[in-house]
Specification:
Length: 217
């Protein structure tokens, strides 16, 4: 159930759930459809591997584009042949990238909720206001700009809509727009065919962290 709360930064939508019964998760818990936890983890690993394999050509091309933007613009073979000789790089890519990002910032698009044929215009207006509030609270413009810049550089950009627990109530959750700094860390369902990815049954977001931090979490 959703409700609106007023803060110093405006109204924010929060998801209110019935307070669950607190209990420890059984250590022997096994996801449905699998006989052991290891069998489930092996299935996840295999799915991840196949998803990356299916998009391997695009990912390699995107990585090459990112390196080119960063200044690695010499052919490796030619670079090896010129070992010890000057290899100048006049990188003009950031200039054109900044120009496109600047145009995007000048002519931003915004989410607009339209009522259906028999829909309530007031409800649509309220939802539009809630979305703007969520974007303001999340500082979403910076997230959108970063995703757009990544899209220009390598043809792919990413961000995600999350829910996170509110600080003042453990059972309230805020809707937030969070950035994904590396678009290549997102691994989409290989069976997805819709350009927007909305038909994907799963999506991985890879995140490399130290083992000590992983165990702490």
């Amino acid at each position: 159930m959703a409700k609106k709360n007023k803060t110093n930064e405006g109204e924010v939508e929060r998801l209110k759930f019935a307070e669950p019964e607190l209990r420890d998760v059984e250590k022997t818990y096994v996801p449905e459809g699998f006989e052991t936890v290891e069998e489930y983890l092996e299935d996840v690993r295999e799915t991840h591997r196949l998803d990356i394999q299916a998009d391997d050509d695009n990912r390699k091309a995107a990585l090459e584009d990112k390196k080119f933007v960063a200044g690695e613009q010499w052919d490796p073979i030619v670079l090896e042949q010129r070992k010890g000789l000057p290899c100048l790089v006049i990188n003009s890519i950031p200039q054109f990238t900044a120009q496109l990002v600047g145009d995007w910032r000048t002519n931003r698009v915004a989410v607009k909720v339209l009522p259906s044929e028999n829909g309530d215009k007031n409800v649509a207006s309220v939802r539009s206001d809630l979305i703007r509030s969520i974007e303001t609270k999340s500082r979403a413009t910076r997230t959108y700009d970063s995703a757009f810049e990544s899209m220009i550089q390598c043809g792919d950009g990413a961000f995600r809509i999350d829910v996170q627990y509110a600080g003042d109530d453990v059972f309230d959750q805020d809707i937030v727009v969070n950035p994904i700094e590396d678009a290549l860390s997102v691994v989409w369902d290989r069976m997805s065919i819709d350009p927007t990815g909305r038909d994907a049954s799963h999506v991985f977001v890879d995140d490399a962290i130290p083992k000590k931090e992983f165990k702490r979490r």
